[in-house]
Specification:
By secondary structure, the chain is an alpha+beta fold. Among the domains are: 67-79 and 312-372 and 599-672, no CATH class; 88-97 and 223-299, 2-Layer Sandwich (Alpha-Beta Plaits); 110-202, no CATH class; 469-597, Pseudouridine synthase, CATH 3.30.2350. The chain is 31% helix and 20% strand. It contains 22 helices and 23 strands. The strands form five sheets. Strands 3, 4, 9, 10, 11, 12, 13, 14, 15, 22 and 23 form an eleven-stranded mixed β-sheet that branches. Strands 5-7-6-8 form a four-stranded antiparallel β-sheet. Helix 2 (110-120) crosses helix 3 and helix 10 (382-390) crosses helix 16 (462-488). The chain is globular, with a radius of gyration of 32 Å. Keywords: Isomerase. Residues 1-18 have a biased composition (Polar residues). Residues 365-599 form the TRUD domain.
Amino acid sequence: MGQVFSTTKPESTPLTTSGKRKASFDSSQTLKKACKDATFESATPEVIITEQDVGILAFVNPNLKGFSSIMKYRAEDFLVNEVNLDGKIIRLTSLDPPVIPERQKFFLSDAEFDAKIAGIISPEFAKELRNVLNNPNDITVSARAKKADYSNFNHKNVEKASRIDFYNAIECNLDAPLMTECLEGVLIARWKNPDDTAHTKVGVVKEKPRKINFDITGGEYVSFYVQKSGVDTMGAVNIMANIGGPRFLPKQFSYAGTKDARAVTVQEMTLFKCDPRYLYDVRNELAERQIYIGNFSFANKGLTLGDLSGNHFTIVLSAAQCVLKGTMSLILKKKDNVWLYILRDVNGASEEDIHESLQSLESRGFINYFGMQRFGTSSICTHEIGRALISLKFAEAADLVLMPRDGDRADFAAARNHWAETKDIKSTLDKLPRQAHTERKLLSSYLRFDNQHEKAFNSLPQHMLSLYYHAYQSYIWNCAVSERAKIYGCDKPVVGDLVLVDGPEKSNNNSNNNNKKYGNAGRRDHSSRKVPKVLTEEDLDNYTIWDVVYPMPGSRSKYPANAIGDFYKQLLEKDNINIKNAQQHFKKLMGDYRPMMVKPKNVGWKFIRYDNPETKLFNTDYDRITSVPEPVSVPNGKYLGLAVELTLGTSQYATMALREVMRSDTSAKAQARNVHT
């Protein structure tokens, strides 16, 4: 087959997008201090990926003054409350035990009850049961009988559904503590006797909670709210399942979205056909792990990924420094998709400057860029790997994933260097840390497919490939919109722009399957009947800048009919992607459309004062339930703060709204260099 992997160790990291700057460190070790909870130190100089590297270049109002600050310094600095599809903010408001609905009893006459049992089982069965009921004090037969011969009455060949109907009839229509059992297909009913154990079914059981009848709860799913910190959503699910023992498994939990570990998050979860009382019983053990549960109810439908309209955020930006005047820090909240920023220690910045910035954000909005989190934190951005894959350069993509890179922690760097020197798959797998999921998966695929690059990549899990594909789509979109802002500005539509209009619904099973498999960066529902329209001169008065959309590249994407369309073509051709042959490169992605601009709603702001820099300026949901006093503004406080609120829609990045006002790089590495002094 020939040499598949190059055995020449590169002198440096494979070429990536230009513009990265290596961080310089002084004796204060600021990055190490900001990341003091990191377990491993970097083995090579850190490389900072900037907004410019991923196409984030323009501002709506380039004349605004800005400031910098620290984001997400602690988990408590980042609060997330899920917003459901109805627009309700998921807030933990109750720690009360779950209320289990009891079946309403409707006592029947003897004749009515006998007729009901005859219809469920048989007339003969009903007669035998009536004989038992007419002799409530006679337990001698069942008391003396062997367990296999319990036969006050029995009826063989009873289907499970009939047994369930029978049990329900006993519970709802009979005011008597009748014992019921099904042994080896034989349904048995009798009166309780002294030899009965707690495991024998009875109309009134004191030893354990009565089994839940989901027919009367309103649904087979238990809904509850979870506040957690220090663990991601899947980790919280595993903890609940482990502490709860065999009564519920991780696969029985479902949720609308995954939440980060480095945050205090509140979200709804559903649990299929489980007794919530068992979950409630382990609440104290969960609380020891910073997991709090409450707001129990029943639902007829479980949650699936995507069943949310947004998130409500509270973000603390601390030790902020005004670019022109003084220092600030900032908190961001979001409720009902409403974000609330609280800026700490506003020192030396004029209120007029702040008013001007926020008024501009309110009236002119911000560019709807894909934020830095879309592109990862490594010196090799995810969109660069996506570029290689979409360009069908699988060997290059393998190098980008596996070869040494700047900023790696020591154990990763050692494994990558070993790979660069030996190209030995098995020994490299032995050296890679367990956390190197992608690298380990890829090398294992090379073993499986005898070093065939394309087959190895295509065998990776869908979510891994989607990460790279979507990052490249997002990068191209960011670059195109920056060029649009540069050439045409951000105030109005121009000839050749795209807007979405109603169109005929079309289906293509093969394309739909591909799109469902890999998704798109913009996540627009492709079952919708919206189609792109190219604006003409006559259309301009009918649309505003808020209607303008720009495409993520894909096999079915339509491009603007102006200079930006040409820019898309040039940008893709630079990456060896021909728009006319898009199906070859984007066969797994149909493409999508994303609004160019975002205009926040309900924008408002106010100033607040406090004395202690460590003052808590907000409470978590659990704090409020447990009556922790709400923070209040201190009259004549030493420090001046500013609270700002605004409403954002889904799929919009709060960091990009912050960027328009702050004028500072929002990348994680750049933020890590800003520390308290």
